[in-house]
Structure formats: structure tokens, C-alpha cells
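Table 4 source record.
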Amino acid sequence: MTAPDLPRATGIRRRPEALTADLRVTLDYDARFLRRRRLTTDSGEAILVDLPETASLDDGDVLELEDGRTVMVAAAPEPLVAVTGDLPRLAWHIGNRHTPCEITPGRLLIRRDRVIEAMLAQLGAGLEPLNGPFCPEGGAYGHGRTMGHDHGDGHGHAHGHAHGHGHDHGHGHTHRHEHPHNHR
């Protein structure tokens, strides 16, 4: 089948309650960030994901096929490291490096990265390698990923003061915008 002949997924249901999906697709964290891509379900059927905009799919989300069937998204196991210790401090250092992080009671989960692991060990963290599904926190601005943010007209955060300003994230570029504020 060519891409136009494949069943097309054009919608997403976010973690629906009590839905038994017709098909299942298992994807790692990187593969769950997509707009248009050919995927193969766990049963071997090819589908075309053709969403109106790029989306970050979470474990348990459901893709809606145009033919009425549904495809459950499952997070694939991948190499991770469990981080323990002074979690608020360690989470700050992880977040300061824009590293995706899953926050669970008693530990943080990140993908294996020898540089980040060395930094965390130097900070006194306990590190335990493991394989498992990776479902990190979404971005603070509602985009579902922690790789930065944009500043459109309604960029979604308030400042409480009047001036234009830029953001420097320490990764080679800045975000500048001007918008009205009210001093009170």
C-alpha cells in the first residue's frame, strides 16, 4: 500500500476512560512526537498518522482512524536511569538543562545520558539504570514537550509589569517579544 491508501489517523483522544481500542502501537518517547508519519501497529498493520499539527502523544492516548477504528498508543520500554536523593535540587539541575524528566514519588526518571548522569552523581544523586516506558512531564506552556516555548500573541504567561523583554535559555538563541503590562 502506498501512503494515500493507508488507513489515516486524523484525530487524537487524550487518555479516554474505558475505551477498548481496535489496534495498538508501541512507540518510544521520540517517536510519540509527530504530525505526519507512517507507523506499523503491534499487529503489523500499517497506518498513516496525518494530524493537523504536531502533537506529543502520551501513553494511553488513542488515535482515531478515518474508517472508525481506534489505535491505542503505548509507551515503549527504553533505557532510563532512576534518580534518587535531594529531588528538588536534582530536579532543578535536570530542568535547567532542558532534559525531559518523569517525576514519580521518591524518584525522577530520565533517559540515559552519560553527561547528565555524571553531573547528577557529582551532586550526590543515587543512579539506577533500568528499562521502562518513559512518560516525562509536559512543558510548562502546554505544548507537551520541554524543548522550549514560543511567544505568540497569547503566549500564556503573565508578568505583572510593563516592559519588553527577551528570554535567554542558554542554548544559543533568545526569544524576544513586546507586550503590554499594567503596573499596579
